[in-house]
C-alpha cells in the first residue's frame, strides 16, 4: 500500500504542534541574528499538512498572513477544506498534491514546515523538500523539519524490522495493527532471559503497546518506509542543498543543563566549537530518537551564542511555579534569598535575583498568556523608582542603572528558555486571559464541536480534550451572546437531560432546582478553566 493510499485508508489524527508555531520559530531566529518575519504578516507553507488543522488555527490567529498547505491525502485535504469554508478563511490554501509535482508559485515563504514527513518518504522526496526550502525560503526564512533520529532509533528500528516481517503479508490496516500488537505482546512475555537484548526488547515492546492511538501506531511504526538519520547526516544533506543548521525547535533539547559539570566540560572539548559535533555527541549521551531541526539559508550569518538582548523585544510564557519548599532544603538554608522555580515538564532554575524571581512568578501566574518582556521590565523599573517595592532584598537593585537591570533580566530569561522553563515568542497569538461578560468560544473549536469532536484546538495553540459532559455542554453555550445568568439557565436546561450517579451508584434524573444549586458555584470556575485552556476569544 503506498503512503498516499495508507493515509486515505486510515485517517491520521489531526494534532497541533506548538513547537512549529511561527511565533516560536521567529523568536529562535531573532535570538541568532536573523530578521525573522513576525507571524502577523508572514507567508508559511506546510508540507504534509494532513487536514491542515495547524494551518486553520494560524489562519484564524493571523488574518493578515498567508498560509499554504499541501498533502497527498485527498480525504484529509477535503476535511480541511470543508473546515476552511465553514470558518470563511480566505488567507489559507489547501492543495491535494504530490509535493514532487506540485507548483508552489513564485512568492517565497518566511517559514516552511514539515512535521512527521521526512523519515516516512523516499530519499528522492526528501531531496525535493530540501530543494524546495532552499529555493523558496526568503532571505531570513526558517525551515522546520522533524525526523526520526539516530542513535536512539537504532533500538526502535529493531522492533520495526520485526513488525514489518511479521505483518508483511497483510494489507488491511486494522488486521495489520492486530497482528503487530499480538507479536509485541508475545515478545513482552516470551523474551525472558536476563540480557541487555532481552531488556531492550521488553522495554520497546511495552512502549509500543502503550500507544493507545491505533492510527498513530500504524502510520508511525508499521510504515513501509521509516528512515532515521543522525544529526551529522541530516546536516550534511541540508548543506548539500544550500541550507545550514540553525537550532532545534525544542530549544532546550540542545541544552546541557542536566549534565554534570565534568560531562559538560568534556562535551565542549569533543565539540571543538563545532555546533553539529556538539549536537551529535549530545545525542550520543541522550540517545535522542526524534529531532525537530530548524534550517536557514547558507548565506545567512548565524550569530552564536544566542543574543540575550533580543529577548527584550519578545514575549515569554511558561507553566512554572516557585518551589516554596526550597527554603527548607540544605541549599536553601545555606543561601538565604535563593529561590527555585520549576516547570511542568520537570525543568528547574534557581536565582538569587529578586527581579528575576518576580518576573518568573508573574509569567507563571499569567500562563498560558505570553507577556511582553519589555513591559515586565518597565513595570519593574516603575516599581523600584517609586520606592513601592516591599521586598527588602530588592533595595540593592534600586541602585542599578536601567541598562544593567535590562541585561540581568534578558540573560536570566534566555537561560530559563534554554532550560525549558518557558517559551519565547514574537507576536504570540491573542486569547482571553479572563472571561468577558459574554464569553465566546473560538471559531475553530466551535466548528470542531459542530463536527462531533471532543478534542478541541486552543488558541495557544494546543489540543484540549473535554473529558466531562458538564464541560462539553458549557463550551457549546459560549457563543458570545449569553451573560452569566443566561449561561446558567441554559446549562441547567441541558444538564437536566443527563442522569446523575448517586453515592449508591444508581443513576437518577435531577430537577432544575437541584441543577441550579449544583451549578451556581461552578459556572465561574468553569469559565476560568476555559480561559486557562486558551479556548476563549479575546
What is the secondary structure topology, with strand pairs?
Elements: H1 3-9, H2 22-31, E1 43-47, H3 53-61, E2 66-71, H4 74-87, E3 92-96, E4 109-114, H5 123-136, E5 137-148, H6 153-166, H7 173-190, H8 196-209, H9 214-221, H10 231-240, E6 243-248, H11 261-271, H12 275-286, E7 290-297, E8 315-317, E9 320-322, H13 330-334, E10 339-343, E11 348-351, H14 354-366, E12 371-372, H15 373-386, H16 402-419, E13 423-425, H17 443-450, E14 455-457, E15 463-465, H18 469-476, H19 484-495, E16 500-501, E17 507-508, H20 512-520, H21 523-532
Parallel strand pairs: 1-2, 1-4, 2-3, 4-5
Antiparallel strand pairs: 5-7, 6-7, 8-12, 8-13, 9-10, 10-11, 14-15, 16-17
Helix pairs in contact: 7-8, 11-12, 14-16, 18-19, 19-20
In summary, what is this structure?
The chain has helices at residues 3-9, 22-31, 53-61, 74-87, 123-136, 153-166, 173-190, 196-209, 214-221, 231-240, 261-271, 275-286, 330-334, 354-366, 373-386, 402-419, 443-450, 469-476, 484-495, 512-520, 523-532; strands at residues 43-47, 66-71, 92-96, 109-114, 137-148, 243-248, 290-297, 315-317, 320-322, 339-343, 348-351, 371-372, 423-425, 455-457, 463-465, 500-501, 507-508. By secondary structure, it is an alpha/beta fold.
CATH architecture of the largest domain: 3-Layer(aba) Sandwich
Unreliable stretches covering 5 or more consecutive residues = 1-5, 390-395
The CATH topology of the largest domain is given as Rossmann fold
The 3D shape can be described as globular
Strand order of the largest sheet: 3-2-1-4-5-7-6
The portion of residues assigned to helices is 40-55%
Relevant CATH superfamily of the largest domain:
Vaccinia Virus protein VP39
**Given the structure, what is the number of helices?**
21
Q: CA-to-CA gap between the ends?
A: 46 Å
* Total number of domains: 4
SS elements, strand count: 17
Main sheet?
7 strands, mixed
Q: What would you report as the Rg, rounded to the nearest angstrom?
A: 25 Å
Instruction: Output the structural class.
Output: alpha/beta
Provide mean pLDDT, rounded: 91
Strand content: 5-15%
Which CATH class of the largest domain?
Alpha Beta
